[in-house]
Design a protein that fits this description.
The chain has 628 residues and is mainly alpha-helical. 53% of the residues lie in helices and 5% in strands. Among the domains are: 172 residues, Potassium Channel Kv1.1, Chain A, CATH 3.30.710; 115 residues; 111 residues. The chain is elongated. The two termini are 77 Å apart. InterPro entries: BTB/POZ_dom, NPH3/RPT2-like, NPH3_dom, SKP1/BTB/POZ_sf. Belongs to the NPH3 family.
């Protein structure tokens, strides 16, 4: 820290009691000055020779026959006045970043100009500020912090503006020229910690990070910090990511409990203003701040009941970054007056913002760029895949809340139902978790929630879990069983399962097929019922049998008939008529055979043949089944 000493005489100021200060000399004092609640017994000559204001006040007291002068409004109070008084006596005074603003404002009040006496204190203080304080990084910050107490004097004397310019200029300087100390407690590179090995026996030059200045500025008061950041942004050229990091560091430093999203209620107005200020200073460029930080800021604004404008702006900004969010980021606690554990409504709004901005957003390519025509929705689809994955994981977590209404779960899931997904395992896991934690839901509710997933997009592991899942409706279990077997039979390279033919659709739950639907075995009520463990075991065993047989013999005509008879036996005996009639499953199996054969490019079957047993296995079919 820089300092300056004025005067050479020893300090002769002494104290009597709590509020009396006097100069211990042989000469009797002839002047009493009241500064606040402190009385100063001093001598006129040294003071009047340097202070034009005291000259005028003394003249007035002589006319009024009053021996005391009152200067209650001097900036800095008794301490600042004493510095100026000691300077008048020529006594030693030490000035530094902590008291120089007080002394400068008090000297201005006392009008201690060069016109009164050459080498007066104002001139010396200005030299000290210009040549030392404003050239020092940390001293400039300290002085800037102290100026708040002396407003408007510090503003009128341009101390604030000089400090702002000094701090902003140093923050903006090339990092290779930073040769002063600074505070940096975040994770550093090995070279910053001095742990890098020597290169050719010479220690490498330490690396200065671009955001080296953000922690020191976090000590500033809200208003001063806002002015510093504004000044830095006005100069231009500062990376938006560094500005964003500065705001993040300030939020964590000045908002107690920010990491948890809940601020203590000691001074809500102050913290509301702080959140508003940080939001207004956020850079407009994307990726300048992380989505995690924006969500934490939103959670804080909700807990502090900040204005709707601030919350709407934060939600809009989060919508731009939602593909960067994690499940943990979105697990926002619900307000105290809510019965649910998590704030699902806010996440619903964030997804809405994401969809609105994706719908209205423009491509980063120029309009005439050929890549825009080749890949018009590449970035959009990529971000949608990420958002769908995060929301699936989020739903799985919030489903553990027994108070979560089904409508909130379904509404949020339906918002991303149209997003591209490589797999529906995530939404299946969320549905399974909800069914596990909400055993009391009705059949219609169970049916509604299961419609959110596409059984054709479940992985093999998810299918195996689903066919053993006692919480799923029978309708879903049969669909999973069919699609898994169809995929194993018709797919040669892991491709997607083809859409169902009309006849097969009519056999699956929810479709009508004339007299094929048995009133006792295939009603909607039966399809929506939950299967027993024995029925699931039968389905699982039959699926394994079908797979094994397909792999061994290529699914030829004779074995197809054997498999069909085996299935009919299992379904009729173990499932007790609840899954479907033998006749229906026979039609389902026959149609599956036709799907398998129609998918082959080298079939020898006649289009008019009605006997499935007369069809022949082609080389292409045998090869396909051997790869499945």
């Amino acid at each position: 820290m820089k300092f300056m000493k004025l005067g050479s005489k020893p300090d002769q100021f002494q104290t009597k009691g709590d509020n009396i200060r006097y100069v211990a000399t042989e000469l009797a004092t002839d002047m009493v000055i009241n500064v606040g609640d402190v009385k100063f017994y001093l001598h006129k000559f040294p003071l009047l020779s340097k202070s034009f204001r005291l000259q005028k006040l003394t003249a007035n007291t002589n006319e009024e026959n009053n021996d005391e002068i009152n200067i209650d409004d001097i900036p800095g109070g008794p301490a600042a006045f004493e510095i100026c008084a000691k300077f008048c006596y020529g006594m030693t005074v030490t000035l530094n970043a902590y008291n120089v603003v007080a002394a400068r404002c008090a000297a201005e009040y006392l009008e201690m100009y060069e016109t009164v006496e050459k080498g007066n204190i104002i001139y010396k203080l200005e030299v000290f500020l210009t040549s030392s304080i404003f050239r020092s990084w940390k001293d400039s910050i300290i002085v800037l912090q102290t100026t708040k107490v002396f407003l408007p004097w510090s503003e009128e004397l341009k101390i604030v503006s000089h400090c702002l310019d000094s701090v902003a200029s140093k923050a903006y300087i090339d990092t290779s020229k930073v040769d002063w100390s600074y505070t940096y407690n975040r994770k550093k590179l090995p070279s910053e910690n001095g742990s890098d090995p020597l290169w050719n026996g010479v220690q490498k030059q330490q690396y200065v990070p671009r955001d080296w200045w953000v922690e020191d500025l976090s000590e500033l008061h809200i208003d001063l910090y806002k002015r510093v950041i504004t000044t830095i942004k006005t100069k231009g050229g500062m990376s938006p990511e560094v500005i964003g990091e500065a705001l993040r560091a300030y939020a964590y430093r000045r908002l107690p409990g920010f990491s948890k999203g809940k601020i203590p209620g000691s001074d809500p107005v102050k913290y509301q203003y702080l959140v508003d200020m940080i939001t207004s200073l956020l850079p407009t460029e994307k990726h300048s701040v992380s989505c995690s930080f924006l969500i934490r800021l939103l959670q804080t604004s909700v807990s502090l009941e900040c204005g709707e404008t601030v919350q709407s702006e934060l939600k809009r900004r989060i919508g731009q970054h939602l593909d960067e969010a994690s499940v943990a980021d979105l697990l926002l606690r619900a307000p105290a007056n809510e019965t649910t554990t998590y704030d699902v409504d806010t996440v619903h709004e964030l997804v809405q913002q994401f969809m609105l901005q994706k719908r209205s957003g423009r491509s980063d390519f120029p309009e005439d760029n050929e890549f825009q025509e080749m890949y018009p929705a590449f970035a959009s689809d990529s971000s949608k895949v990420k958002v769908a994955r995060v929301i699936d994981g989020y739903l799985a977590e919030v489903s553990r809340d027994p108070n979560l209404p089904l409508v909130k779960f379904v509404n949020l899931a339906e918002m991303v139902s149209g997003f591209p997904r490589p797999s529906h395992d995530g939404i299946y896991r969320a549905i399974d978790m909800y069914l596990k934690e909400h055993l009391g839901i009705t059949k219609s509710e169970r049916k509604r929630i299961c419609k959110l997933m596409d059984c054709r997009k479940l992985s093999a592991e998810a299918c195996m879990h689903a066919v053993q899942n006692e919480r799923l409706p029978l309708r879903v279990v049969v669909q999973v069983l069919f699609f898994e077997q169809a995929r194993a039979t018709t797919s040669s390279g892991g491709g997607s399962t083809p859409d169902l033919a009309g006849t097969i659709k009519s056999l699956l739950p929810g479709e009508s097929h004339g007299s094929s639907r048995s009133a006792t075995t295939n009603t909607d009520e039966d399809w929506d019922a939950v299967p027993t463990a024995e029925e699931l075991k039968a389905l699982k065993g039959e699926l394994a049998t079908l797979r094994l047989t397909d792999k061994e013999v290529g699914c030829n005509d004779t074995n197809s008939i054997d498999i069909k008879m085996s299935v009919e036996k299992v379904i009729g005996g173990k499932a007790k008529g609840l899954i479907m009639s033998k006749k229906l499953f026979s039609k389902l199996w026959s149609n599956k055979d036709r799907l398998s054969e129609n998918s082959s490019s080298d079939t020898s079957e006649s289009p008019g043949s009605s006997n499935a047993g007369e069809s022949k296995s082609t080389p292409s079919r045998s090869r396909r089944h051997s790869l499945s």
